[in-house]
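Inverse folding, one chain.
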């Protein structure tokens, strides 16, 4: 990184240097000033200046020297994940989920409330409120201690936190989620589409953290996509990227009907949450039920149409399957690979999320952390 100020903008240069040091210290191992200087390509003097500033603000901690060191040991620094608290919220069709974490995304407490998918706006927001309060109380954290909050929702979201369009939740179009959550926690609140945030979680702490180009498929009662291009979440001009499911020919609108039709042919009371009982179809397919296997294959064939279009357009390194159905990926991955082989010039590696339906909330935490990191590097947080 260049240390020469452009146009005398020393303030901006300090911000970039601080961001570079923080980025290198987000790993597991503490680093010395010499190591930081080499990795950031800053002079040792500049590195020491930045480290001193970040140490004073509480973002870094100095690590005790290793036992048995000879002579004067070099000072080592690490990122202080305990400096603040973040809140990640996922408000969806069947649940409200809230995570309270440190600045590394380590979950300190979580709260989940199952909700009826037919709930109206008022009742769903009330469930969100209860979920957040329960998560904060369980973590022993006051609302004012939350540095930043990320919120995930279905539908299209504008830059101010308002749901512009949602066809899957009753009365949800027009909800100002940002304003609502700001009444619960006073810090900055950012709102984003759930598929995009699930993709963000995978590149942060998930199976795609070493990949630069990723297609994330949210497979569940609803199908959606999040796109990572050159290591960054791709939102598009109007934040509508990945909405290929809006095109009927993509197959995603009709895909779940194969599973729902099987349930109608095989009725049974269910206590399953989050997937509307559809996980019973995958369980039957795993057990060899031929009708269930056919239903799963029909679902995968429709899923693969839209997925193939994204693969052919982006040529990603990875396709990641997440969402509620990812728990049943063992009966989905191979059929999906065969379908992609039919349509794609090159079938990318297919990996399964380890987060199941919690990845969206973790992506909301990452969104909150993005806000905090932009704040600290501009010197706004003391």
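Residues assigned per position:
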């Amino acid at each position: 990184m260049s240390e020469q100020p452009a146009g005398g903008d020393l303030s901006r240069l300090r911000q970039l240097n601080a961001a570079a040091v923080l980025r290198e210290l987000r790993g597991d191992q503490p680093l010395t000033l010499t190591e930081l200087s080499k990795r950031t390509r800053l002079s040792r003097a500049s590195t020491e200046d930045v480290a001193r500033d970040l140490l004073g603000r509480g973002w870094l901690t100095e690590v005790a020297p290793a036992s048995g060191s000879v002579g004067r040991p070099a000072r080592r620094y690490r990122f202080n994940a305990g400096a603040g608290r973040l809140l990640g919220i996922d408000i969806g069709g069947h649940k409200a989920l809230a995570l309270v974490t440190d600045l590394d995304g380590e979950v300190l407490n979580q709260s989940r409330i199952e909700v009826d998918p037919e709930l109206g706006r008022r009742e769903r927001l009330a469930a969100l409120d209860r979920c957040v309060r329960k998560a904060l109380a369980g973590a022993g954290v006051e609302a004012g201690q939350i540095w930043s909050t990320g919120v995930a929702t279905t539908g299209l979201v504008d830059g101010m936190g308002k749901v512009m369009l949602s066809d899957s939740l009753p009365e949800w179009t027009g909800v100002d989620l940002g304003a609502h959550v700001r009444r619960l926690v006073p810090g900055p609140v950012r709102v984003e589409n759930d598929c995009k945030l699930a993709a963000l979680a995978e590149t942060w702490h998930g199976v795609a953290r070493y990949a630069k180009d990723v297609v994330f498929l949210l497979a569940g009662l609803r199908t959606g996509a999040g796109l990572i291009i050159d290591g960054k979440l791709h939102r598009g001009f109007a934040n509508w990227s990945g909405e290929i499911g809006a095109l009927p020919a993509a197959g995603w609108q009709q895909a779940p009907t194969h599973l729902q039709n099987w349930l109608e042919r095989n009725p049974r009371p269910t206590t399953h949450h989050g997937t509307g009982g559809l996980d019973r179809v995958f369980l039957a397919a795993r057990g060899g039920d031929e009708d269930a296997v056919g239903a799963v294959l029909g679902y995968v064939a429709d899923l693969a149409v839209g997925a193939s279009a994204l693969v052919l357009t982006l040529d990603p390194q990875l396709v990641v399957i997440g969402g509620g159905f990812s728990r049943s990926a063992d009966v989905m991955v191979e059929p999906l690979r065969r379908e992609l082989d039919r349509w794609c010039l090159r079938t990318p590696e297919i990996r399964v999320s380890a987060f199941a339906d919690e990845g969206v909330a973790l992506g909301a935490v990452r969104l909150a952390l993005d806000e905090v990191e932009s704040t600290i590097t501009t010197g706004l947080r003391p």
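The first strand starts at residue 31 and ends at 32. The radius of gyration is 23 Å.
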